[in-house]
Amino acid sequence: MKKLMGVLCAVAMSASMVPAHAQDAKLTDRLQSATNVINEVMAAPDKAIPQSILADAKCLVVVPSFKKGAFVVGAQYGQGVATCRTPKGWSSPVFVQLTGGSFGFQIGGQATDLILVAMNEGGLEHMLTNKFKIGGDAAASAGPVGRNAQAGTDWKLNAEFLTYSRSKGLFAGIDLDGTVLSQNSDDTRTEYGSDVPFKGVLSGQVVTPENARPFVHTVAKYFVISKDAQ
């Protein structure tokens, strides 16, 4: 009887130690949706993010399936995930939100995927802050698509972020000036089970949870320096 009670107690203790992220289907679904967005965008190389951008990217933000018809000026309209490149590979993800901005294309009800790519140290530093305005605090440009970025664009010198959207299969650069990217501390706390600093996570100091590994692995698969570029 004592052995049986001991086993039951051990099982109960093990159940109580299950990490929060393993119990939250909402966050797992968001991570999976972000993974799907990257795979689908990169499935057509001639219309995807150029290799030169994939190789130089410092951080990546994916906001999947934003419902345009639900947009209200000033209201929260996008929930996404972000990861940054570290000396050991891409970091564990944090959860972010995109708010504000008024764009005519957003009226109509169809879903839109948003992608933001931080291209330099300035963009990386903004990612590590609590909140910043795209086009205000951080310079941004609509990102080029295709196998090679055009040499005539100014993003190489000036843009801290390149911005993209995808709607009805079309993937193209977009003007997100005026929108605000901020930390979603509640969701990040739920994922990791405690208040973990965003900077610590994005700097690679936190182990990637199991439900986030497919997202991080997918980013690492595409955002690499090709052998031809080396």
Describe this structure in words.
The chain is an alpha+beta fold. The chain has one domain. It is 32% helix and 25% strand. It is built from 8 helices and 10 strands. Strands 1, 2, 3, 4, 5, 6, 7, 8, 9 and 10 form a 10-stranded mixed β-sheet that branches. The longest helix has 18 residues. It starts with a helix and ends in an 8-residue tail after the last helix. The N terminus is likely disordered.
Descriptors for this entry?
230 residues; alpha+beta
Whole-number tally of structural domains: 1
Tally of alpha and pi helices = 8
What's the pLDDT, averaged over the residues? 78
Query: Whole-number radius of gyration?
Result: 19 Å
Low-pLDDT stretches are: 1-23, 69-76, 103-108
Dominant shape: globular
Q: Give helix and strand order, one letter per element, not per position.
A: HHHEEEEEHEEHEEEHHH
Helix content: 25-40%
Strand percent estimate = 15-25%
CA-CA gap between termini: 66 Å
Given helix and strand content, the structural type is alpha+beta
Kindly state the number of beta strands.
Answer: 10
Largest sheet, in brief, is: 10 strands, mixed
